[in-house]
Amino acid sequence: MTADEIASHIQHTNVRPEASRADVERLLAECLEHGFNGAMVNPIWVPLAATALKGSSVRVCTALDFPMGGATTAMVAEQAAEAVRSGAQEIDVMTKVGWLKAGMEEEYRAHLVAVVSAAEGAPVKAMLEAGLLTSDELARAVELAVEARVSYVKNSSGFGGGDATLELVSELRRLVAGRVGVKASGGIRTREDAEALLAAGADLLGSSAGVRIVTGAAGPAPFGAY
């Protein structure tokens, strides 16, 4: 794959709590320079991103109820609606891992249904935290997310739920069976990582190392390990 082809799958990310306006502006400039698929920022930076990326092909993305997943469904639905009003074009949302493990499948699904509805057509990606799930739980999480009409399942928030692996992405691709997309995140730091995960079945890649991936620049990812 060419660097441009890889960039078209990367959602370049800075969701660090200490990210400053200058950090976010740098991320947005890099998205425009390299033609990344999307810019993933915390909700407070969505209006800035929407202004900076207006008229470009770069998608404005944000993550909700992140990374703990402890807010109520009503809270997260309102956050989704506000994010879209502010200019977000895609929503990544934490799933309720504890509900799934407690057998509260209807609540788990209803939470995602509410967020999808509040997003009013903006694609919603369900962060499954696969590293915290058994194989059976992962299969149920995928089915419930598909039933809720999310647009993508995502292996992890990048914090605490395990990095993307070829085996995991391949399994998610098998489980979704073409019904929704797959986003891989966590630990994607090199071009080789990106190419392998795309070949394994990922449609999108979430990474803070987007520039390093497409340019081969040395050094640590500038925005942390996400």
Describe this structure in words.
The chain is an alpha/beta fold. It has a single domain (3-215), classed as TIM Barrel. It has ten helices and eight strands. An eight-stranded parallel beta barrel has the order 1-2-3-4-5-6-7-8, surrounded by seven helices. α8 links the parallel β6 and β7 (181-185). α2 (21-34) packs parallel to α3, α4 runs parallel beside α6 (105-118) and α6 packs across α7 (135-147). The mean pLDDT is 95.
The strand line-up of the biggest sheet is 1-2-3-4-5-6-7-8
How are helices and strands ordered from N to C?
HEHEHEHEHHEHEHEHEH
Structural class: alpha/beta
> How many discrete structural domains?
1
Relevant CATH superfamily: Aldolase class I
- Which term fits the overall shape? globular
Residue fraction in strands: 15-25%
| CATH architecture descriptor text | Alpha-Beta Barrel
Please compute the radius of gyration using only Cα atoms: 16 Å
Count of alpha/pi helices: 10
| CATH domain fold name | TIM Barrel
- Gap between N and C termini: 23 Å
| Residue share in helix | 40-55%
What summary fits the major beta sheet? 8 strands, parallel, barrel
What is the C-level CATH assignment?
Alpha Beta
Task: Summarize, please.
By secondary structure, this protein is α/β, with parallel strands linked by helices. It contains ten helices and eight strands. Strand 3 (59-64), helix 4 (73-86) and strand 4 (90-94) form a beta-alpha-beta unit.
